[in-house]
Design a protein that fits this description.
The structure holds 2 protein chains of 2 kinds.
Chain A: H1 5-20, H2 22-25, E1 53-55, E2 59-61, E3 79-80, E4 94-99, E5 105-108, H3 109-114, E6 118-125, H4 141-145, E7 148-157, H5 158-165, E8 173-178, E9 185-189, H6 190-195, E10 198-203, E11 206-207, E12 217-219, E13 232-238, H7 245-250, E14 253-254, E15 260-262, E16 270-275, E17 285-294, E18 300-306, E19 314-315, E20 317-318, E21 328-336, E22 341-349, H8 358-365, E23 379-382, E24 388-390
Parallel strand pairs in A: 4-13
Antiparallel strand pairs in A: 1-2, 2-3, 4-5, 6-7, 7-10, 8-9, 8-13, 10-11, 10-12, 14-15, 16-17, 17-21, 18-19, 18-22, 20-21, 22-23, 23-24
Chain B: H1 7-23, E1 52-53, H2 56-62, E2 77-79, H3 80-90, H4 92-95, H5 136-145, H6 156-169, E3 178-180, E4 195-197
Helix pairs in contact in B: 3-6, 5-6
Classes of the chains: A alpha+beta, B mainly alpha.
Chain lengths: 396, 210
Amino acid sequence: MKVSRRDLLAGAAGVVALGASAAAQAPSDTTKTRGKPSRALGQRSGAEKPQRQPRGATSSGTPHQDLYGTITPSDLHFERHHGGVPEIDPNSYSLLIHGMVERPMMFSLADLKRFPAVSRIHFLECSGNFGGRTANVELTPQQIAGLTSTSEWTGVRLATLFKEVGASPKATWFLAEGQDAAVLTRSVPIAKAYDDALIAYGQNGEAIRPEQGYPARLFLPGWEGNANVKWLRRIELSDRPFMTREETSKYTDPMADGTARMFSFLMDARSLITYPAYPVTLTPGWVEINGIAWTGSGKIVRVDVSTDGGKTWTAAKLQEPVLSKAHTRFRHLWNWKGSEAVIKSRAVDETGYVQPTKDAVIALRGISSVGYHTNPITGWRIRSDGTVVYAAEPWS
Amino acid sequence: MRTESVGRFAVAGLIGLMLIAGGATVRPAAQTRAAAPAKAAPNQPATFGIGRPATAAEIAAWDIDVGPDGVGLPSGHGTSADGAPIYAARCASCHGKTGKEGPNDALVGRLPGDAFPFARDARTPKTIGSYWPYATTVFDYIRRAMPPDAPGTLKDDEVYALVAYLLTLNDLVPADAVIDATSLPKVKMPAREHFVPDTRGTNKPPVKPK
């Protein structure tokens, strides 16, 4: 198609106008003006501008305050990478599986797609997903817990591939390695491969986005994001872990007893009220408090909500279907009378694990354990003027 | 029961679980009669015959990992004297002139008595000398990912030299030590005894090494 300079200028002007004020441009009576024609690719309403929020060049968080339900739109799925996002040609992509196997093999992307596939809805969370340690009250849900998202993931079970290559029954760990500039590596216990691990190439019905590992990634339901190696190019089966940089010097948890926890894959239960939350302003009357809860241990069985700062708790309604290792939406009706209040949420999962308080986290992990696996109960302060701010509990 | 659970809430959680389980059996009043399937679905074969054998050359080209036992370390060697100029040219701009100044991760520094205060003081940098449990990891990581402006381009001897330099700055090996595939896995790392496996989700208590 030939595109003239005039077309380009007109198009650019249109984009600017749309960005400036979509509402101003819309006709006052849409029943009196013919609407837009069909088009090849859908777009959000110009009035909706949800954005990921980059923290430096290596991560950006999901805007939970702008979302409903449980599925994260793929372009708003959080990202975290250690060597930038690689551009990988799907036609030259290969996955090597070798080590303690009978038949070391190479699989093209087309090969991976020929295997029986499964689709599963799961959250994925960076273990460094807690931004609420400061005294700053002007924090959004995105800033406090933006590094968790939920998608429908489609791919081949890793167990299927391990059968194809003849995995040794003596193998106890496998190494997963990415094709990014960090050539990121993690060791994973082999039991996870036979439990529920996937090599995923689909996300919410289409190909995985580059930030999520295009064209294929390891997906370990319920386990910390870093171990879900993206842009996966190699798996090596072994009888011991490899002690890579990420699993030794980085993704380990110093504990209050002077040890440091290794291979702490499991993401424990957590919840977060996403409405009302900073920066909304409430008016007195009925409010449906709602948010998301999730756990790497299976299903969320209960979310308690407190509207008195944690003195008393009421079980919220859970939006069905409640899925294992997926964001679960909870809702709780509240008649706000206009006086200052602190609202909080507390998740309980099917193992009986209860989301801990900040003090309980510190007792176990130590005051500086903010780095990874920090999942305290958090809340929001509704001021009497209706403004909503983060109910900060500074870690000092 | 998970060991990290807060006891009284855990009981409440179980009760909640029982309530949900008790109320979940809802059946439709009438079920539509479906035709029986004509044929049973095939069983999954032992293998699908998808993919192709990987050649030894293909495996060698990608298999760059180094284990804590030294498996995977290449031939070659380096000393601290060899590593100092490479560090100054390729590493110091991010990690500091002596490995302590940043702006990126501090690599150098031991703590008095090899203390391990990381749970109570987040300001203590996790250096190679104070936190890294395995010396082999230093080689593996530098070779695969450093420096960020040209990752994976250092020669094996250069990587050995950088590892020797960083271990020397951390007082982990003598200044004249030759680092190679034999000597590197033997380097004793002070932090190693502090690391324990995660036991959440199991009934096993954490095992603290003696």
